[in-house]
Design goal:
This protein is mainly β and about 200 residues long. The protein has a single domain, classed as Ribonuclease Inhibitor (Leucine-rich repeat, LRR (right-handed beta-alpha superhelix)), CATH 3.80.10.10. The protein has 1 helix and 10 strands. The longest helix is centred in the C-terminal third of the chain and has 13 residues.
Protein backbone atom coordinates (compact mmCIF):
# COMPACT_ATOMS: atom_id res chain seq x y z
CA UNK A 1 0.00 0.00 0.00
CA UNK A 2 1.10 3.60 -0.74
CA UNK A 3 3.92 2.32 -2.99
CA UNK A 4 3.56 5.35 -5.28
CA UNK A 5 3.19 7.94 -2.51
CA UNK A 6 6.71 8.37 -1.18
CA UNK A 7 6.39 12.17 -1.16
CA UNK A 8 3.09 12.20 0.75
CA UNK A 9 3.24 14.46 3.82
CA UNK A 10 -0.40 14.47 5.01
CA UNK A 11 -2.65 11.40 5.34
CA UNK A 12 -6.17 11.36 6.77
CA UNK A 13 -7.74 7.97 7.47
CA UNK A 14 -10.35 8.97 10.04
CA UNK A 15 -13.82 7.40 10.03
CA UNK A 16 -12.64 4.41 7.97
CA UNK A 17 -13.80 1.68 10.39
CA UNK A 18 -10.21 0.49 10.83
CA UNK A 19 -9.73 -2.03 13.63
CA UNK A 20 -6.01 -2.72 13.10
CA UNK A 21 -3.01 -1.37 11.23
CA UNK A 22 -0.68 -4.01 9.82
CA UNK A 23 3.07 -3.60 10.42
CA UNK A 24 4.71 -1.80 7.53
CA UNK A 25 1.49 -0.18 6.31
CA UNK A 26 3.12 3.25 6.18
CA UNK A 27 6.65 2.06 5.46
CA UNK A 28 6.66 3.66 2.00
CA UNK A 29 5.84 7.11 3.37
CA UNK A 30 9.26 8.33 4.56
CA UNK A 31 8.35 12.03 4.72
CA UNK A 32 4.88 11.71 6.26
CA UNK A 33 4.39 14.53 8.76
CA UNK A 34 0.68 14.39 9.61
CA UNK A 35 -1.33 11.19 10.19
CA UNK A 36 -4.96 11.14 11.28
CA UNK A 37 -6.34 7.76 12.37
CA UNK A 38 -9.10 9.19 14.54
CA UNK A 39 -12.65 7.83 14.81
CA UNK A 40 -11.82 4.22 14.03
CA UNK A 41 -11.82 1.03 16.12
CA UNK A 42 -8.08 0.58 16.64
CA UNK A 43 -7.32 -1.21 19.91
CA UNK A 44 -3.58 -1.90 19.73
CA UNK A 45 -0.49 0.00 18.65
CA UNK A 46 2.97 -1.23 17.74
CA UNK A 47 6.18 0.43 16.70
CA UNK A 48 6.11 -1.06 13.21
CA UNK A 49 2.88 0.77 12.32
CA UNK A 50 4.50 4.11 11.65
CA UNK A 51 6.30 5.71 8.75
CA UNK A 52 9.66 7.49 8.76
CA UNK A 53 11.17 9.73 11.42
CA UNK A 54 9.47 12.95 10.26
CA UNK A 55 6.00 12.28 11.70
CA UNK A 56 5.13 15.33 13.81
CA UNK A 57 1.34 15.13 14.23
CA UNK A 58 -0.48 11.90 15.15
CA UNK A 59 -4.22 11.71 15.79
CA UNK A 60 -5.47 8.50 17.43
CA UNK A 61 -8.53 10.00 19.09
CA UNK A 62 -11.86 8.17 19.34
CA UNK A 63 -10.48 4.65 19.08
CA UNK A 64 -10.46 1.66 21.45
CA UNK A 65 -6.88 1.83 22.75
CA UNK A 66 -6.61 0.44 26.29
CA UNK A 67 -2.90 -0.07 26.92
CA UNK A 68 0.33 1.60 25.83
CA UNK A 69 3.60 -0.02 26.81
CA UNK A 70 5.94 2.66 25.52
CA UNK A 71 7.88 0.96 22.75
CA UNK A 72 5.06 1.90 20.35
CA UNK A 73 6.72 5.28 19.83
CA UNK A 74 10.23 3.99 19.17
CA UNK A 75 10.24 4.94 15.48
CA UNK A 76 8.58 8.36 15.78
CA UNK A 77 10.71 10.14 18.35
CA UNK A 78 10.26 13.52 16.62
CA UNK A 79 6.53 13.54 17.30
CA UNK A 80 5.32 16.90 18.62
CA UNK A 81 1.53 16.45 18.83
CA UNK A 82 -0.21 13.30 20.08
CA UNK A 83 -4.00 13.10 20.39
CA UNK A 84 -5.36 10.12 22.34
CA UNK A 85 -8.58 11.63 23.61
CA UNK A 86 -11.71 9.47 23.80
CA UNK A 87 -9.94 6.13 24.09
CA UNK A 88 -10.19 3.44 26.79
CA UNK A 89 -6.87 4.16 28.52
CA UNK A 90 -6.89 3.32 32.22
CA UNK A 91 -3.23 3.25 33.24
CA UNK A 92 -0.35 5.54 32.34
CA UNK A 93 3.22 5.82 33.63
CA UNK A 94 6.56 7.33 32.62
CA UNK A 95 7.10 4.23 30.45
CA UNK A 96 3.94 5.01 28.50
CA UNK A 97 5.65 7.96 26.80
CA UNK A 98 9.07 6.38 26.40
CA UNK A 99 10.88 7.86 23.40
CA UNK A 100 8.61 10.89 22.96
CA UNK A 101 11.29 13.32 24.09
CA UNK A 102 10.18 16.04 21.63
CA UNK A 103 6.45 15.92 22.42
CA UNK A 104 4.87 19.35 22.97
CA UNK A 105 1.13 18.64 23.11
CA UNK A 106 -0.56 15.61 24.68
CA UNK A 107 -4.34 15.19 24.54
CA UNK A 108 -5.70 12.64 27.04
CA UNK A 109 -9.18 13.97 27.71
CA UNK A 110 -12.25 11.73 27.98
CA UNK A 111 -10.44 8.47 28.69
CA UNK A 112 -10.70 6.23 31.76
CA UNK A 113 -7.53 7.33 33.55
CA UNK A 114 -8.15 7.24 37.29
CA UNK A 115 -4.60 7.56 38.60
CA UNK A 116 -1.41 9.22 37.38
CA UNK A 117 1.71 7.96 39.22
CA UNK A 118 4.58 10.31 40.18
CA UNK A 119 7.03 11.13 37.37
CA UNK A 120 4.57 10.05 34.66
CA UNK A 121 5.41 13.09 32.50
CA UNK A 122 8.93 13.77 33.76
CA UNK A 123 10.63 12.66 30.54
CA UNK A 124 8.51 14.93 28.35
CA UNK A 125 10.96 17.82 28.56
CA UNK A 126 9.28 20.00 25.93
CA UNK A 127 5.65 19.36 26.91
CA UNK A 128 3.74 22.65 26.95
CA UNK A 129 0.10 21.51 26.82
CA UNK A 130 -1.51 18.59 28.63
CA UNK A 131 -5.25 17.89 28.57
CA UNK A 132 -6.59 15.46 31.18
CA UNK A 133 -10.14 16.79 31.30
CA UNK A 134 -13.11 14.40 31.66
CA UNK A 135 -11.23 11.45 33.10
CA UNK A 136 -11.82 9.55 36.33
CA UNK A 137 -9.15 11.44 38.24
CA UNK A 138 -10.04 12.51 41.76
CA UNK A 139 -6.63 13.91 42.62
CA UNK A 140 -3.33 14.74 40.97
CA UNK A 141 0.11 15.01 42.53
CA UNK A 142 2.36 17.72 40.99
CA UNK A 143 5.23 15.24 41.15
CA UNK A 144 3.86 13.72 37.96
CA UNK A 145 5.81 16.42 36.12
CA UNK A 146 9.07 16.38 38.03
CA UNK A 147 10.62 19.80 37.47
CA UNK A 148 9.16 20.16 33.97
CA UNK A 149 5.81 21.90 34.25
CA UNK A 150 3.81 22.41 31.04
CA UNK A 151 2.58 25.94 30.40
CA UNK A 152 -1.02 24.83 29.89
CA UNK A 153 -2.64 22.05 31.92
CA UNK A 154 -6.33 21.26 31.76
CA UNK A 155 -7.51 18.74 34.33
CA UNK A 156 -11.07 19.92 34.85
CA UNK A 157 -11.88 20.01 38.56
CA UNK A 158 -9.65 17.74 40.64
CA UNK A 159 -7.81 18.09 43.91
CA UNK A 160 -4.10 18.65 43.61
CA UNK A 161 -2.08 17.53 46.61
CA UNK A 162 1.10 19.48 47.11
CA UNK A 163 3.40 21.19 49.50
CA UNK A 164 2.98 24.85 48.66
CA UNK A 165 6.19 26.87 48.77
CA UNK A 166 6.31 30.67 49.21
CA UNK A 167 7.23 31.01 45.53
CA UNK A 168 4.21 28.96 44.47
CA UNK A 169 1.92 30.98 46.73
CA UNK A 170 3.03 34.18 45.03
CA UNK A 171 2.63 32.61 41.62
CA UNK A 172 -0.85 31.29 42.40
CA UNK A 173 -2.00 34.63 43.80
CA UNK A 174 -0.77 36.33 40.65
CA UNK A 175 -2.63 33.83 38.47
CA UNK A 176 -5.80 34.34 40.48
CA UNK A 177 -5.59 38.12 39.99
CA UNK A 178 -4.97 37.58 36.28
CA UNK A 179 -8.14 35.52 36.00
CA UNK A 180 -6.56 32.12 35.34
CA UNK A 181 -8.02 30.56 38.47
CA UNK A 182 -11.51 30.09 39.82
CA UNK A 183 -12.45 32.54 42.60
CA UNK A 184 -13.61 29.50 44.59
CA UNK A 185 -10.03 28.34 45.14
CA UNK A 186 -9.59 27.62 48.87
CA UNK A 187 -6.69 28.80 51.00
CA UNK A 188 -3.28 28.15 49.45
CA UNK A 189 -2.36 25.23 51.68
CA UNK A 190 -3.14 21.55 51.62
CA UNK A 191 -5.47 20.63 48.80
CA UNK A 192 -5.98 22.97 45.86
CA UNK A 193 -8.66 22.63 43.22
CA UNK A 194 -7.10 23.74 39.97
CA UNK A 195 -9.06 24.26 36.80
CA UNK A 196 -7.23 24.69 33.53
CA UNK A 197 -4.22 26.72 34.58
CA UNK A 198 -0.52 26.99 33.97
CA UNK A 199 1.77 25.92 36.78
CA UNK A 200 4.78 27.79 38.13
Amino acid sequence: MFEDSRTLEVLRLSNCKLSAIDPGTFANLPVLRYLNLGNNAISRLNKDMWAGPFLYFLFLNDNCIQNIGGDEWENISRLKYLDLHSNLLKNVSSQTWHGLRNLEVLELSNTSIAHVPPNTFTNLLYLRRLNLRSNELESLNPNVFGSNHPHDIDVGIVKIHCSVTPDCVGCLKQKRRAGFMSPKIPSLTGQLSWHSLGLC
